[in-house]
Amino acid sequence: MTTTSSTTSFAASVLDPIRAIVGERGIITDPGTMQPFMESWRDGWVGRSPAVVLPDSAQALAAVVRICAETRTPIVPQGGNTGLTGASQPHADGSEIVLSTNRLNRIREIDLDNDTMTVEAGCILANIQNAARDVGRLFPMSLAAEGSCQIGGNIATNAGGVQVVRYGNMRNLVAGLEVVLPDGRIWDGLRGLRKDNAGYDMKQIFIGSEGTLGIVTAAVLKLSPLPRATATALVAVSSPSDAVDLLTRAKGKVGDRIITFELIQRFCIDIARRHVPDVPDPLNDVYPWYVLVELADQDSGERLAGMLEGILEAAMEAGEVLDGVVAASKAQADSLWRIREGIPEGQKREGVSYKHDVSVPISKVALFLDRANAALEREFPGIRPFSFGHLGDGNIHYNPIQGEDGDPAEWKARLGAVNAIVHDIVVDLGGSISAEHGIGRLRIDELPRYKSPVELDMMVALKMAFDPHNIMNPGKILRLNGNAR
Amino acid sequence: MTTTSSTTSFAASVLDPIRAIVGERGIITDPGTMQPFMESWRDGWVGRSPAVVLPDSAQALAAVVRICAETRTPIVPQGGNTGLTGASQPHADGSEIVLSTNRLNRIREIDLDNDTMTVEAGCILANIQNAARDVGRLFPMSLAAEGSCQIGGNIATNAGGVQVVRYGNMRNLVAGLEVVLPDGRIWDGLRGLRKDNAGYDMKQIFIGSEGTLGIVTAAVLKLSPLPRATATALVAVSSPSDAVDLLTRAKGKVGDRIITFELIQRFCIDIARRHVPDVPDPLNDVYPWYVLVELADQDSGERLAGMLEGILEAAMEAGEVLDGVVAASKAQADSLWRIREGIPEGQKREGVSYKHDVSVPISKVALFLDRANAALEREFPGIRPFSFGHLGDGNIHYNPIQGEDGDPAEWKARLGAVNAIVHDIVVDLGGSISAEHGIGRLRIDELPRYKSPVELDMMVALKMAFDPHNIMNPGKILRLNGNAR
């Protein structure tokens, strides 16, 4: 790609055959038009590419991959391009084509008695949620990017979100897959089954593999009954440890009616209120920690609210809960959610922050916060702890913010050191350095520090077995053979 | 193993080093004492082996595997030996050692706030259920062999059972694994996390791999809240199609409170009553089909029974349900379960039967039964349809019984032909030829007929990546390179 002749040869051997398959509508080579596909919406990943290819069928996509396989042209699969780890943008050297699923956007089938929906990879998550709701079902995957992320990317990253405590990760919501393999063959695994032990469950390897083993082109999704009612509360607690006790209490009383259980540090609310309009201060007094809890059920809203109130009253008597409010209306519930949703936006405007998407066993969350806060405050005086997230599944967005004083550039330079301190503690407590966002390029150099040689070897063995020429999203998750990718 | 000198050399190079690791208590070579490890409790699988090895730790088990890897000695991993597909017994040529997890039977840890339990592979399923119940939790895996099957085998076969409609398969209940790989290294993946996207989720490949990729030595299991109440009913319906309508109705009304939804053909009840004591005829009249439905919840038993009655009344008004009984006591519920549980035993005594463990999309169950029954009756007049199973997850035990007349030996010889007719229809409807039992040896020669070349290639690639010398449970699930194993 560095000389005119190699560019010509690349065009003749790769781009022209691809153009013959996808047509002029299916390929973009104009730099300006390509730009949105080259960069991430956050975190500054920017790359270059000779072409963005947008096939309109799995067959066309497979034919494109075959050309890439024959010519050893590396591919970056891309869905809604909303990821947070640099996995869906090309590298800066411009050697990779971007293969977009934007035009694979049909809902192929809804099977009501089977509670499944067959969708193509480019369907927007929110459209899938709405299509399910239109037929009286729930597709429970829900996350901030749902208006633009695509289901193929949700599957490739095993997306999480705010309802994992009840419905599990994306892995749990997939019954079947259609995948284009790195050699360009199509695997039709679009089975809508709850039980299938006929050989290895091959779909599992593609879920969460960040496009490094193949490209998901369609999926059979599992639908759930649509809850008839929800009940929402925001309560104050004096510590994360009390929040865990409240969670354990609530699970015992209402089990899987808990669809959301979010822990929020007071400082997060302050920051959201400082920078984002209409974020309320929910209670009359100020408390150190809060929990946003939501229940959902087929039973009546009154019954559900009564159960929630019962739990909170008992928790207040036991001293776990200091104060709280149960939403009396949809508007009031939305207002409580506004607090939670305002946090990431507020944080962005407050200065340098150190983002971590970590999980530990729920029983270790309080200990993790204590240890990480103490270690960082010791090392970087003035750093401000900032923690919120999905306590119900042990996933904390632990995002401390720079001190009020000091040079932002200096604070920025500390990112790697902060990550190392936090991640060392996480792994020491049996946790994960990436709970839901994946590894991509963001954590690729940290992974070898936190995975055993045995586990890394297994990951490499899997990659080599399915993509021996390393053309599928190279340099994401793993570097092979000590190479840059 | 065929000459004295090779036997001597095998003893010196393999058995003596193994004995040095596990001690005399950890190795059995006496044929009589080995016999229970050589044969299946049902279906007649019998093999031979030079030794049964019973390590008492993952470390010792790994050391044994290292010796086998170095000497290319094939291994049959064995748990409770309750499988139904010949996966856990050695082949007849006596070349494989049996590696038993019987002595890996400790519960290592229970983490109440994290709702997890860390167990060794040899723990009996019922002991795990009881240990969970003792601390106020539910471990929801439940199946007929629970009194003797081991959790390692449940994981290796991705066990199903009667509560999958609510809690999922074994895969859904595993948070982390410890596995000894075919080269004898130990992978410590014992993480108790609900969210972990730090690289490929390697535990997924071992779950359901029937011991062909490695040996599970321990697992972190997910626990659930213990339901406070259950409600059980047996209802009569005129067709499987009406049973599906009832299921859809019930899911809409009570969602995941449904823990069991079993379809039962009338003839199954007749056969159970003919051969098994104390199986009641549940209703005053005789109906063609029945459904055993059970709900469980944290709410009160009265509330739950009221919900169940409400569903059944509405279903009767809609004509989906013809008659039914809601159990008024634990004893009455047990008596209804006695019907379901008496079926396999009754069937065994009625003559030759053709067992199938198939699944189709729930929406296709009625069509499957119609087509399969018609095809078999056309081909084998007099054959008696006999169907029951887990309608809630599309898994039907479709086990037609020989005609009342004819030579049993002739009926027996038709097994392959019956399997082919049934499985062709299953796969044509998007189903699986093994819903929960696995492939083992029973279905190994059928798998290539029903899996695409692409899928078979992927399975072989995975096997070769992890067990290139094919020492781990060879000749189960797959034959490699056209070899017998």
Please, could you describe this protein's structure?
The structure is a homodimer of 485-residue chains. Helix content of chain A is 37%, strand content 18%. A 7-stranded antiparallel sheet of chain A has the order 15-12-14-13-17-18-16, with helices on both faces. Chain A is built from 16 helices and 18 strands. Chain A has helices at residues 4-22, 31-38, 58-71, 125-134, 151-156, 164-167, 203-206, 240-254, 266-275, 301-317, 330-348, 365-379, 408-413, 415-428, 447-450, 453-466; strands at 27-28, 52-53, 75-78, 97-100, 107-111, 116-120, 137-138, 174-180, 186-189, 215-222, 224-225, 229-237, 258-265, 289-297, 323-326, 357-359, 387-390, 395-398. Chain A folds into 4 domains: 4-100, Uridine Diphospho-n-acetylenolpyruvylglucosamine Reductase, domain 2 (2-Layer Sandwich); 107-225, Uridine Diphospho-n-acetylenolpyruvylglucosamine Reductase, domain 3 (2-Layer Sandwich), CATH 3.30.465.10; 229-348, Alpha-Beta Plaits, CATH 3.30.70.2190; 357-428, Alpha-Beta Plaits (2-Layer Sandwich), CATH 3.30.70.2740. The first copy, chain A, is globular. Chain A has 485 residues and is α+β, with helices and mostly antiparallel strands.
Strand order of the largest sheet of chain A: 15-12-14-13-17-18-16
Note the total helix count of chain A: 16
Mean pLDDT across the residues of chain A is: 96
* Number of strand elements of chain A: 18
Measured by DSSP, the beta-strand proportion of chain A falls in 15-25%
Largest interface: A-B, 95 and 95 residues
**CATH topology type of the largest domain in chain A:** Alpha-Beta Plaits
Rounded to the nearest angstrom, the radius of gyration of chain A is 23 Å
Return the CATH class of the largest domain in chain A.
Alpha Beta
Task: Estimate the global geometry of chain A from the Cα principal axes.
Answer: globular
CATH architecture of the largest domain in chain A: 2-Layer Sandwich
The rounded distance between the terminal residues' Cα atoms of chain A is 18 Å
Query: Uncertain segments of chain A of ≥5 residues (pLDDT<50)?
Result: none
The helix content of chain A is 25-40%
Oligomer type: homodimer
